[in-house]
UniProtKB/TrEMBL annotation:
The keyword Transmembrane applies. Keywords: Membrane, Transmembrane, Transmembrane helix. It comes from the Bacteria. The chain crosses the membrane at residues 38-63. It holds the Pfam family DUF5819. It comes from Catenulispora acidiphila (strain DSM 44928 / JCM 14897 / NBRC 102108 / NRRL B-24433 / ID139908). This is Uncharacterized protein.
Length: 236
């Protein structure tokens, strides 16, 4: 029978053990090998660099216009849009002045070649229902669809002939379309080939500060129909 106590156990190639001297017992301390240490340091440095760049880009985006933000506006917009867009300014918050109700309907080509249209799906109402009575409401339900539409409208994305007016407009159009397609697919659970959005904009009346003579009446709601957008399997 072999004596197991006499068998030498070699340490793993990437981990070595050192011992801290203190008291009667030696405390083992694991030390990573040189390649692993370099990899860890590089990963930490990369994460810190990305965090610093992100904070700097967002700060320049929300800060008042200055020489740096004007010089690097294209790079800042490319970093911020569409996922990190901010709905506020550093020294001048911009609250909503109108409420948009966004609905969608879909078009399906039947086997006989006929085109069938669905009813209007109120996407805004679906988001509102997901937020109402929720102690920790989802950021997606609160802001994704609303901010996608605001960015699309602010960019004046609809050019002549129904085509996007710029590369950024095309990106925002695809972003808004993909959100609408995902919401409509979740509501209908059917395949469709095209989608159309309807946006009803209702101005928010200013707060009542008592009897104000000659106060202008609230503007009526306006309705905008976007063109039909084709849908592919990659959009769902």
């Amino acid at each position: 029978m072999n004596d197991m106590s006499s068998t030498a156990i070699e340490p793993l190639p990437h981990i070595s053990e050192t011992y801290a001297v203190g008291g009667d017992d030696a405390v083992p301390r694991v030390r990573l090998s040189r390649p692993v240490e370099v990899a860890v340091v590089a990963a930490v440095a990369l994460c810190l660099t990305a965090a610093v760049v992100h904070v700097a880009m967002v700060f320049l985006y929300v800060a008042p216009s200055n020489t740096v933000s004007q010089t690097y506006r294209k790079q800042i917009d490319a970093w911020v849009y569409p996922y990190f867009e901010q709905d506020w300014r550093l020294f001048a918050p911009d609250p909503q002045s109108a409420r948009q109700e966004i609905s969608a309907r879909t078009s399906t080509v039947a086997p006989d070649g006929a085109t069938r249209l669905s009813g209007w799906i109120d996407l805004t109402a679906v988001d509102d229902a997901a937020v109402r009575h929720d102690v920790f409401p989802s950021h997606t339900a609160q802001n994704m669809l609303r901010r996608a539409w605001a960015a699309y409208a602010d960019a004046d994305a609809q050019g002549a002939g129904g085509q996007p007016a710029s590369q950024r407009a095309a990106m925002l159009q695809a972003y808004l379309r993909n959100i609408a397609v995902q919401r409509a697919s979740a509501a209908h659970h059917v395949n469709f080939s095209a989608i159309q959005l309807r946006v009803v904009t209702t101005p928010i009346a200013p707060p009542s500060l008592g009897a104000v003579p000659n106060r202008p009446a609230a503007s009526p709601s306006s309705v905008r129909y976007l063109p039909w957008w084709q849908v592919t399997t990659h959009d769902v």
